[in-house]
Amino acid sequence: MSIVYSINKGINRSIEFKGIKAQYILYLAVGLVGLLVLFAIGYIAGAPIWLCALIVGGLGFFLFSTVSKYSRKYGEHGLLKKTGYRSVPEHIRCHSRSVFFNLTSPKK
């Protein structure tokens, strides 16, 4: 019995999978690959398999819930906008008007 997951995408809309939108799917995929590597490192290091599974399962639950929360809270582009606003200065200060004296207007 195979399970088929549908990816909802309408015309001019972003990809949505199980309520997770756009770039958050990529964040979740990268996080899951990281958890797979973490499990492999723990298993190869000799940690008990139940401990590796418990740690990776807990971190996977935290990852999925965090990504889902950000997807619901910020939407498709909101998280990128939030990080972009962080780099914009609050004030631009100019202590001298000499900067504006040498500006020339474009000649037509």
Automatic annotation (TrEMBL):
The keyword Membrane applies. The chain crosses the membrane at residues 24-41, 47-67. InterPro entries: DUF4133 (IPR025407). Keywords: Membrane, Transmembrane, Transmembrane helix. It comes from the Bacteria. This is DUF4133 domain-containing protein.
